[in-house]
Every structure is written in C-alpha cells, then in structure tokens.
C-alpha cells in the first residue's frame, strides 16, 4: 500500500487519468455490456428490465403512462407488495435460512435475522399494527435509530399498505411534530432511547414532547432498547412493541396488493429553505428502480455481504440498506454505532469479520478516515472488498485516491453515485464493470437517464461550462409528488425549465454541474451554494475542493460574508496543525492557482470538525450565520451540535 504522500494532491480540476475497472471485477460483474444504446433505442420499454426484477400480483399493462406530466405513472396496471418482494419470495426460492440482516450494535452486540426470521417478525408486527387500527393508506411515522426494529416496522407497514414516514432519530421533537402534522399521521413507532458513543439518549421524552403538540390523537408503540438503563412508563395510547409481538406470535398477514403507483413511503427532506418537503415514492416504480440500480451500480449479488454505512433515516438507507438489497435477496449489514467508537478501526474490524463484499458510504466518512490515518484500515484484512461506493456529496480526487488505495487495496472500482431523495435511486454513476472511472467526476448518466446542463435561458451549455443539472425524461424511481401538494411539486422541480405548452417537461435537480468531452459529469453542488464574488459566480464546491487538495487538509467549507465578496474558509486538518500560518498560505495559494485571486479567502478558520447533517452534508447555512454573527436557526438536525460553540469562539478570536 502506498503512503499518503504518494496520493496525488489535486484540487477542483478533474484528475485526467481515467482508470479502467480491473479484469477480475469485469468478469464477475452483474452488468458487463454498455446498455446506453439499447436503452436509447428501446426507451421507455427498457425499464421493463427493472420491472422484471420484481414479482407482480397482476402484471403491468405498459411500462409508462405519460398522459399527465409531470405526474408520470410507472408500471400502470401492475399490482404488488413490497414486503412480499423483500421477504416471501425469497423463502419460496430456497433462501429462507440465508441471512437477510446482520445487525451490529454498540459494544459488539449482534443480531442476525435470516429471511425466515425477518419474515416472522415483520408478520407479527404487521398483525399488531392492524390490531392497533392502522389501515391501508394511513401514514405511520417511524422515529427509530439504527436498530433492527426500524427496517422491520418499515416492512410491516409496507405489508399492510400503510405508507411509512421515517423521521431521522436525531431530529428534535419540534421537527418530528411538524412532520407528523404535515402527513396527518396518527401512529408513531419509537423507542425509549438509544446509545451513541456509549451514552444513553432519551428518545421517548422527545417523542412525548412532539405528541403533545401534534393535532391528531396519536397511538404510540415503544421499542424497549435500553431496558433498565432507561426505565419508562407507558401512558394511555402507548404500547410496548415486544408485548404486541408476543400477543401476535407466529401470526401471518396476507400482503396487501398495492397498485404500482400507490405510495410506499414518504420522506421529508428539509432542503435549504422553507417547510420540509414530503417526497412521495411509489410502490412499483421506486422498488423496481432501487433493485435495478442496486444490481447495476452496486453490483449486489444474493450471496454477497453488502454494507451501506448510512442511516436509514436518510433516503440512502431506504433505497440501499433496506429496499434495494432485500429485494435482491442479499445480506445487508446494519450498524448502530459511530465509526470511531470504541476505536477508529471499528468499520474495518466489521468489514474483516463479516467479509464484506461491497461497501458504500459518504465522502464525509472517507475524509474522516483520511484524517485519522491509514494505520486504521491497515490493521485489518480488507481483501474481501470488491467494490466501493460514495454518495451524498462530491468526493474530491484526493479522498477518492485515498479510499481506493487504503480501503480498496488499490484495486476495487469506486462508484461515485449522484442522486437525491427525489430521484429515489442512483441517476448518475459509472457502471462499474463497464465504464472507466475519472476521480472527481460522478460519471455519465445511467443508461436510460437523460441529463442536460442548461443555462438560465434553458440553452445547453458547452462541455467545460457550468450549467443547471436537469433530467429530460422520467425514470421509474422518481418521486410521484410532494405529499398533499401537487402544486408545490410542479413549482419546485418542473416549472423552471419546462415548456408545458409545447408538451416539454424537464426536472430541475437544483444542482450545478459541468460535463467533459466524454459526457462525464462533475457535480458542483447545490445551485444555492454559489458565491457571488465581485460579480463572478464561484461554486463553493470548487473552492472547497481546491482547499481540500492541499496536503494536510481534511475538509473545507466556504461561505460568503454579508458585506458581499469576502470568502470565509472553515477548515479541518488531518492531524494536529503546528503551523497554521504556513497552512493558511498554502490554502490561499491553492485557491489563487486553481480558481483565481478574486476567490482568495479573506479569513481561514481552523476547526476540529465542520457542522454536518444526518447524511454528512456540511451545513453551510449555519456557518453563514456564524460568519455574519446572525442568530443561529434550528440546529437540531446536526449530528455534531457541540461543534458550533467552538467555531463561534474561533471566529470571534480572528
Ligand atoms: C442521496 C442523497 C441530494 C443532494 C444532491 C447533491 C448531493 C448526492 C452526490 C452529490 C455530488 C454525489 N449529492 N450525491 N453531490 N456527488 N455523488 O444524498 O440525497 O439527501 O436528498 O441529497 O446531495 O447536491 O442534490 P439527498
């Protein structure tokens, strides 16, 4: 394995050297032929390939009904049940004793569920929910941390046709209440508390506070996660999960046949402004797309042990911990803890012990691994790994190389997957057995996906130029609408670039990107994350990538000062910084060479960590408030709220 010093240091520009997947990977890949032309010729029927991955109760009549855009209906006429597709059919195909979920809890606590065991518990839970009064189409809110009861309750809801709305366990009582009210949800599944880094957190008291302010008369089910460590008393309308299951021991519930476009779940995404948006996903299109992308891009096979180290409270966990992998009948790993507890090699210890084949995580995690050093992955045999994935933010080339070298043994292909809560599944990525990889670029759109980069007049921009990332055609995983708000759905995502009179519809992702001559896309982040410096538009991501390319820097976030123009850079380093001044000079130099002197940061603030959301995205809005000494908005969505005070005092000391 090479030294960190051997990892090329580069910034915003793409690493030109494209890399082919190793022959050993190609030989075994699920997809080893370029499907782009086939999909072009046969669109939209090509999506039959995704539909075929599922078992339907009634077959669909056609693949796509586009009569009423942008409200597309995928697989119309088809009926199916998602829990049947993730469980029952695998029992029938002889996989009943195969591990479905391998859960790893705090301090090495472990639970494995075979497909049969998962089936039994999902059925008992479904029976219990029915008895509590949950009916088809009732929205059930799930406010659980990364414990097996989270996917179990999701699948139980799916079984009885009740859409779930998972609210990330770290969110506040107020955030939970807003989401329950917005979805008219009368049922809440939660727990007494959970562990983080060895400390017990009280979840029930947050849930109680939320229920007090929710309009509906809420029925609550409580999972006892902490036992005697956090005793709790059940009030009226509150039920113990374990007791409910016991009362329905070994009962089975006939899976409810749902129309393909019936809602499977909704997921709130906070976005950058305004009320949270309740993104609605369908049963047929979503599940088919999650399974197809998991098979095509993540190369998942039934015999694999596959690990997506994300939270299920984020769309990534829905599609690629729960629905995609279970639809394919594989073993999906679920980890409750943090990557550095009890030590910084925790993830690698799990990869080695479970012989994980495919590992999928976020760049923020990769940059943390880099910061901690290669000695942690080096302690373990990671040779079981075949493929690595990245999701959630752009992965800068230096982090990409580090990931491949020190986790992937210099061999594993990496898929840098771009997608959104609204796309339901991966939309831009290399297909790992087919396409060359270019570090810093997510890759071409997947077969069947049509990306256009446009300027504000909806004219296509040239290669090398920055444009709005838009999708020209519907795809099966796409959101159906925003809950109870078709109008806002059209306004947020379709109005900007569509021409309804001409019958032309185009999805606006809200991201900016740049294409190279080969059509590989470099994602530059949210359109709102663009700074206006002396009349020039500079993407924060490009600035951050230039800074993170400096030797010794782990991560950077830039924001603008309120007086216009001034760039503030918040930076965390790989180890202790003994010479902040020298590092600051190198940062400024890197920005001047790679972007230009106008973008030179006025102030560089060193901080041990950057404020991050549940999915590891840097919360720039908060840094802006800190920079401009504004009152801080809601910080409850942060995974590391303790860092804010530290950053505030660092800024004051400047
Ligand atoms: C899956 C997920 C969506 C936003 C998206 C974009 C950013 C996601 C990315 C990426 C660059 C990648 N994003 N993947 N940016 N490269 N590979 O993250 O969903 O939480 O809705 O966020 O994340 O800005 O628009 P979500």
UniProtKB/TrEMBL annotation:
<feature type="domain" description="AMP-dependent synthetase/ligase">
    <location>
        <begin position="95"/>
        <end position="474"/>
    </location>
</feature>
<dbReference type="GO" id="GO:0003987">
    <property type="term" value="F:acetate-CoA ligase activity"/>
</dbReference>
<dbReference type="Pfam" id="PF13193">
    <property type="entry name" value="AMP-binding_C"/>
</dbReference>
<dbReference type="GO" id="GO:0043427">
    <property type="term" value="P:carbon fixation by 3-hydroxypropionate cycle"/>
</dbReference>
<dbReference type="GO" id="GO:0019427">
    <property type="term" value="P:acetyl-CoA biosynthetic process from acetate"/>
</dbReference>
<dbReference type="GO" id="GO:0043955">
    <property type="term" value="F:3-hydroxypropionyl-CoA synthetase activity"/>
</dbReference>
<feature type="domain" description="AMP-binding enzyme C-terminal">
    <location>
        <begin position="542"/>
        <end position="617"/>
    </location>
</feature>
<dbReference type="GO" id="GO:0016208">
    <property type="term" value="F:AMP binding"/>
</dbReference>
<dbReference type="InterPro" id="IPR025110">
    <property type="entry name" value="AMP-bd_C"/>
</dbReference>
<feature type="region of interest" description="Disordered">
    <location>
        <begin position="1"/>
        <end position="30"/>
    </location>
</feature>
<comment type="similarity">
    <text>Belongs to the ATP-dependent AMP-binding enzyme family.</text>
</comment>
<dbReference type="Pfam" id="PF00501">
    <property type="entry name" value="AMP-binding"/>
</dbReference>
<keyword id="KW-0067">ATP-binding</keyword>
<feature type="region of interest" description="Disordered">
    <location>
        <begin position="629"/>
        <end position="654"/>
    </location>
</feature>
<protein>
    <recommendedName>
        <fullName>Acetate--CoA ligase</fullName>
        <ecNumber>6.2.1.1</ecNumber>
    </recommendedName>
</protein>
<dbReference type="InterPro" id="IPR000873">
    <property type="entry name" value="AMP-dep_synth/lig_dom"/>
</dbReference>
<dbReference type="InterPro" id="IPR045851">
    <property type="entry name" value="AMP-bd_C_sf"/>
</dbReference>
<dbReference type="InterPro" id="IPR020845">
    <property type="entry name" value="AMP-binding_CS"/>
</dbReference>
<dbReference type="InterPro" id="IPR042099">
    <property type="entry name" value="ANL_N_sf"/>
</dbReference>
<dbReference type="Pfam" id="PF16177">
    <property type="entry name" value="ACAS_N"/>
</dbReference>
<dbReference type="InterPro" id="IPR011904">
    <property type="entry name" value="Ac_CoA_lig"/>
</dbReference>
<keyword id="KW-0547">Nucleotide-binding</keyword>
<feature type="domain" description="Acetyl-coenzyme A synthetase N-terminal">
    <location>
        <begin position="41"/>
        <end position="86"/>
    </location>
</feature>
<keyword id="KW-0436">Ligase</keyword>
<dbReference type="InterPro" id="IPR032387">
    <property type="entry name" value="ACAS_N"/>
</dbReference>
<feature type="compositionally biased region" description="Polar residues">
    <location>
        <begin position="11"/>
        <end position="22"/>
    </location>
</feature>
<dbReference type="GO" id="GO:0005524">
    <property type="term" value="F:ATP binding"/>
</dbReference>
């Amino acid at each position: 394995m090479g030294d960190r010093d051997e990892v090329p240091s580069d910034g915003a520009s793409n690493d030109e050297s494209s890399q082919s997947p190793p022959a050993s990977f190609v030989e075994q890949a699920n997809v080893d032929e370029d499907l782009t032309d086939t999909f072009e010729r046969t669109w939209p029927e090509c999506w039959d390939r995704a539909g075929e991955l599922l078992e339907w109760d009634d077959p669909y009549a056609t693949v796509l009904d586009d009569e009423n855009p942008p409200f597309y209906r995928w697989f119309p006429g088809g009926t199916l049940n998602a829990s049947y597709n993730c469980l029952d059919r695998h029992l029938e195909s002889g996989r009943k004793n195969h591990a479905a979920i391998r859960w790893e809890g705090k301090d090495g606590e472990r639970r494995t569920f075979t497909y049969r065991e998962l089936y039994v518990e999902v059925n008992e839970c479904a029976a219990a929910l029915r008895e509590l009064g949950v009916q088809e189409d009732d929205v059930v809110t799930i406010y659980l941390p990364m414990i097996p009861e989270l996917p179990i309750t999701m699948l139980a809801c799916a079984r009885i046709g009740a859409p779930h709305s998972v609210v990330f366990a770290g969110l506040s009582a107020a955030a939970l209440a807003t989401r329950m009210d917005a979805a008219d949800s009368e049922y809440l599944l939660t727990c007494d508390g959970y562990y983080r880094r060895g400390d017990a957190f009280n979840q029930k008291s947050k849930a109680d506070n939320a229920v007090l302010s929710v309009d509906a008369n809420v029925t609550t089910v409580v999972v006892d996660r902490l036992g005697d460590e956090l005793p709790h008393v059940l009030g009226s309308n509150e039920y113990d999960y374990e007791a409910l299951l016991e009362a329905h021991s070994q009962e089975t519930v006939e899976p409810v046949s749902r129309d393909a476009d019936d809602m499977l779940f909704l997921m709130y995404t906070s976005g950058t402004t305004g009320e949270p948006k309740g993104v609605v996903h369908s049963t047929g299109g979503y599940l088919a797309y999650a399974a197809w992308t998991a098979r095509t891009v993540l190369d998942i096979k039934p015999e694999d042990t596959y690990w997506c180290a994300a939270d299920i409270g984020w769309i990534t966990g829905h599609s690629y911990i729960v629905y995609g992998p279970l639809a394919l009948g594989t073993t999906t790993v679920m980890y409750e803890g943090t990557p550095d507890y009890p030590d910084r090699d925790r993830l690698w210890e799990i990869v080695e012990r479970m012989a994980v084949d495919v590992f999928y995580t976020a760049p923020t995690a990769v940059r943390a691994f880099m910061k901690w050093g290669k000695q942690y992955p080096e302690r373990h045999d990671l040779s079981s790994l075949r493929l690595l994935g990245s999701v959630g933010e752009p992965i800068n080339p230096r982090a990409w190389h580090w990931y491949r070298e020190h986790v992937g043994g210099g061999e594993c292909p990496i898929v840098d997957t771009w997608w959104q809560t609204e796309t339901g599944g991966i939309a831009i990525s290399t297909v790992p057995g087919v396409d060359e990889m270019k570090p810093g670029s997510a890759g071409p759109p997947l077969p069947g996906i049509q990306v256009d980069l446009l300027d504000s007049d909806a004219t296509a921009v040239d290669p090398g130029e920055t444009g709005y990332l838009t999708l020209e055609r519907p795809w099966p995983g796409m959101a159906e609408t925003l809950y109870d708000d078709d109008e806002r759905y059209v306004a947020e995502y379709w109005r900007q670039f569509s021409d309804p009179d001409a019958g032309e519809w185009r999805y606006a992702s809200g991201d900016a990107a740049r294409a190279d001559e080969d059509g590989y896309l470099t994602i530059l982040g949210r359109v709102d994350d663009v700074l206006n410096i002396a009349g020039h538009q500079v993407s924060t991501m490009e600035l951050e990538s230039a800074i993170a390319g400096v030797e010794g820097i782990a991560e950077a976030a830039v924001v603008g000062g309120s007086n216009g123009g001034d760039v503030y850079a918040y930076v965390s380093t790989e180890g202790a910084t003994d010479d902040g001044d020298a590092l600051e000079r190198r940062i400024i130099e890197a920005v001047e060479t790679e972007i230009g002197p106008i973008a030179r940061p006025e102030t560089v603030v060193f901080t041990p960590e950057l404020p991050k959301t549940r999915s590891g995205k840097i919360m720039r809005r908060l840094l802006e408030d800190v920079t401009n000494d504004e009152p801080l908005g809601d910080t409850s969505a942060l995974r590391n709220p303790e860092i804010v005070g530290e950053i505030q005092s660092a800024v004051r000391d400047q």
